[in-house]
Amino acid sequence: MIRLMPPELLSIGQVADRTGVAHSALRFYESEGLISASRSDGGQRRYSRNTLRRVAFIRVAQRVGLSLEEIRGALASLPESRTPTKADWARLSVAWRPRLDEQIALLQRLRDELTSCIGCGCLSLAACKLYNPGDAAANLGSGPRYLLSGVRPAEVANNVTH
Questions:
Q1: Maximum C-alpha span of the chain
Q2: Which residue has the higher pLDDT, 88 or 160?
Q3: Final residue of a domain: which of 84, 109, 143?
């Protein structure tokens, strides 16, 4: 039986098929410097096999909420010429642990607090007499401050009244 070796370089279609990422996303990743490609004599993109791992890494990092800047920084620390080793991944995971812990805490607060405002029915922190008397949350900044800051509504109300 003759065993064929996989090609050293992959077309954009082959990378898309293997990773489940659209051609347009691969071109975007390339334009952002997250992956790189060489060109064939006909001008078609050709990717090294280690691009498959890099794309998988990008997808997982995006899925857990990391920004493109964070992903770019991580990939810049990895060797382009070889598949990252277990030590490479371990180094990244240690560096990301605080960021991921923060993301987990935010998701837990969202899960635990989501019913609070919906439960009272007003859906307006500016008008809510229960969770935001006197619009005290405005002092914390813009956006969903209780959720993002982790400050409890009672803590803000106590600071406003005392």
A1: 83
A2: 88
A3: 84
